[in-house]
Amino acid sequence: MSGFAFPAPRSSDPADFGRVGVLLGGTSSEREVSLDSGRNVLEALQARGVNAFAIDGIPALSRALVAGEVDRVFNILHGHNGGGEDGIVQGLLEAFGVPYTGSDVLGSALSMDKIRTKQVWLSVGLPTPKYRKVTAADVHAQAAELGLPVVVKPANEGSSVGISRVFDDAGLDEAVALATRYDGQLLMEQMVVGDELTVGILGDVALPSIRIVPKGQWYDYDAKYKADDTQYLCPGLDGADEEAIRHLALAAFRAAGCRGWGRVDVMRDRSTGRLFLLEVNTAPGMTSHSLVPKAAGQAGIGFEELVWRVLEQTLADPSQENRHA
User: Fold this and answer.
1) Which residues participate directly in catalysis (predicted)?
2) Partners of 199 in the β-ladder
3) Average pLDDT of 277-288?
4) What is residue 178's DSSP assignment?
5) CB of 258 within 8 A of CB of 280?
6) Which residue, 199, 196, 207, 124, is CA-closest to 165?
7) pLDDT of residue 217
8) Is the pLDDT confidence value at 38 over 90?
9) Mean pLDDT of 116-145
10) Backbone phi and psi for residue 202, each to the nearest 5 degrees, phi listed first
11) Residue 131 scores a pLDDT above 70
12) Quick one: pLDDT at residue 318?
């Protein structure tokens, strides 16, 4: 697919990276996905000659940092509460002065909180479904205000964990009971009926969109990570619509304070064609079912090169050094 201008690589020498810890696993609800992603990233880096090794979880990372055993970190630790997408790992690495992939403390913490991400987007005029912060006590009243159907989910989880789609008042209590198994606030938002799309971000480039077509009615955890019959159409849209979703995704990524790489999830209303932002993933999956590698491949970037380009963002940018020389 033409039309993608990627900058020249910052390095072609794997020795420039030093000792690279691939941070994976952890204790979040997304541990198994992170282990799978991490194995793929580790193999890709080692295949390119990088001195890379696995680090499972934050305590192991802390010990490696104290011992001075790691020069930079490829963070593929998904989720929060023992994951690496909520700003805690980023703060730890900042304190030790160790470069790492992906968004910084602010971008990571903000994007992990779907409610506050929505507040930022709305403040700069970016479209996202109407929502409420809910508790079990007022869930029925808030659903009535929004209008059914609605989606109920934990505000701080990913990978479709704890999500329910609710079409009648009778289903609300069960949806809340599921979502409250996870820490943090609950989010209820208007359900957008239409196409589910996602846009990967690599540096300053929005990759081709992907339209996700599960065999079942919903793109749930099984459809994401286990099923082999989910269809991924890339690019997901055509012409001006494709340009619009890529522009919107990049604007949303930047507004949330994100950097490096990530993925922005979007819904397209089937009746109006309007786009609505759902969330940003700051350490997206890198499994055989994952979406950023699919989009990068469509743009001419293979998996090993994708992993290299994510890691090399931890190196100084020669163009910036020349600018300030």
Assistant:
1) 30, 159, 290
2) 209, 264
3) 93
4) H
5) yes
6) 196
7) 60
8) yes
9) 90
10) -130, 105
11) yes
12) 64
Task: Give me the CATH code for the 130-190 domain, please.
Answer: 3.30.1490.20
Mean of pLDDT over the chain:
90
pLDDT attached to residue 107 = 97
Residue 267, C-beta contacts closer than 8 angstroms, at least 6 positions apart: 129, 192, 194, 195, 196, 197, 275, 276, 278
Close Cβ partners of 128 (under 8 Å, ≥ 6 residues apart): 118, 121, 122, 189, 276, 277, 278
- Answer yes or no: same fold for 130-190 and 194-309: no
> What pLDDT is recorded for position 323?
44
What b-and-e string marks burial along 54-70, b requiring 16 or more CB atoms within 10 Å of the CB? bbbbbebbeebbeeeeb
Please identify every residue annotated as catalytic: 30, 159, 290
Q: Is 40 marked as binding a ligand?
A: no
The answer to whether residues 56 and 73 touch, using CB atoms and an 8 Å cutoff, is no
pLDDT of residue 222: 57
* CATH number assigned to the domain covering 194-309: 3.30.470.20
Residue 322 marked as a ligand binder: no
Domain boundaries, the chain: 130-190, 194-309
DSSP 8: P
User: Which of 91, 92, 88, 71 shows the shortest CA–CA distance to 80?
Assistant: 88
